Amino acid sequence: MWLTEIPAPDFDLAMTLDSGQVFHWETAGKGFVGAIGDCPVYVEKDRNILRAFGSVLKLDRLKRPSLRKIVSQYFALDHSLAEICASLPRDPVMNAAKHFCRGLRIIRQPKWECLATFICSSMKQIAHIRQISRKLRERFGQARKINPPSPRLRCGEAITVFTFPSAERIAASSEKALHRCALGYRAKNLLATSRLIANRDLDLEQLARMADVDLHAKLCALPGVGAKVANCVMLFAYERLRAFPIDVWIERVLREQYFPGKRKLNVGRLRAFTEEYFGDHGGYAQQYLFHHARMSMGRSKSKVSGRRGAESLSRSRA
DNA sequence: GCCCAGGCCATTT
DNA sequence: AAATGGCATGGG
């Protein structure tokens, strides 16, 4: 077990973990517990310090990076948010999201874990995706314990966390077993894709060398992976910061904020716009717009009446 | 019961 | 090429 403290002044841990890019971190004490790959970790933000406590596997410890390296890499503390934000468009919608999401980082997730959870994400609310992720971990992953050494770490008692199951482990399960994790029709896709990996027909690490377009096409060829999921995996696991996933939230933001009242707008037109407008860090723009929109929706009570509500509000003020 | 959800896919126009 | 409907499940 190791303890490390990392200066991270422009990093919002809680917002990053609650922004719908990763689904397994759970609050514990004043921080969060989860797994970074095979490493069980407790993390907390204490003023400008990111404090992490956890263990690295004993096998091949010599080749193993330090906990500090693992945490810094995972949370992308090397990303210069100042430069990234400066490169984003400066329209009112983007500015508001940018301001609201200060400190939110696009993290670097393990590739299979990211691919698998986003295969499970289709037509699911984030709370459901979290449930699915937890069930997969509890049922097929490995239990690892975190034993806090001192009350300095405000995480309380010993905690068990579960690693995400390998593709081989999922492939060795069954569609019925996956169904019991509330996967629904997604079970078949997850199983099929896991078997491509277990059978050596697909090596996710090898794909990292491919150009964006080719990587996107390769991912889209996998069962249960379409344009949206492929872009999520590119953004959250392959560090392709241009990737701009368009889900129902983002599509709503684009239609209402960037093309208000425009009728003939298919997904292809929206895609053409986002790729040229948001630029090299479009993925950050997308995540900020997504999180801001999702957090703002709670205020208007009813989701369906949200649009009408906003409209009538602006009219009544006029 | 209704609505919707970080969509994908086969089928039809 | 673009629109449409089915798909499993759970929360509000």
Task: Please write out the topology.
Elements: E1 2-7, H1 13-17, E2 26-28, E3 31-36, E4 39-46, E5 49-54, H2 67-74, H3 81-87, H4 92-100, H5 111-119, H6 126-140, E6 143-146, E7 159-162, H7 167-171, H8 175-179, H9 186-198, H10 212-220, H11 227-237, H12 248-258, H13 267-277, H14 282-297, H15 305-317
Antiparallel strand pairs: 1-5, 2-3, 3-4, 4-5, 6-7
Helix pairs in contact: 4-14, 5-11, 10-11
The structure holds a DNA duplex (13 and 12 nucleotides).
Structure overview:
By secondary structure, this protein is an alpha+beta fold. Helix 4 (92-100) packs across helix 14 (282-297), helix 5 runs antiparallel to helix 11 and helix 10 (212-220) crosses helix 11. It is globular and about 55 Å long. The chain is built from 15 helices and seven strands. The model is unreliable at 300-318 (pLDDT under 50). It has helices at residues 13-17, 67-74, 81-87, 92-100, 111-119, 126-140, 167-171, 175-179, 186-198, 212-220, 227-237, 248-258, 267-277, 282-297, 305-317, and strands at residues 2-7, 26-28, 31-36, 39-46, 49-54, 143-146, 159-162. It binds a DNA duplex (13 and 12 nucleotides) through helix 6, helix 9, helix 11 and helix 12.
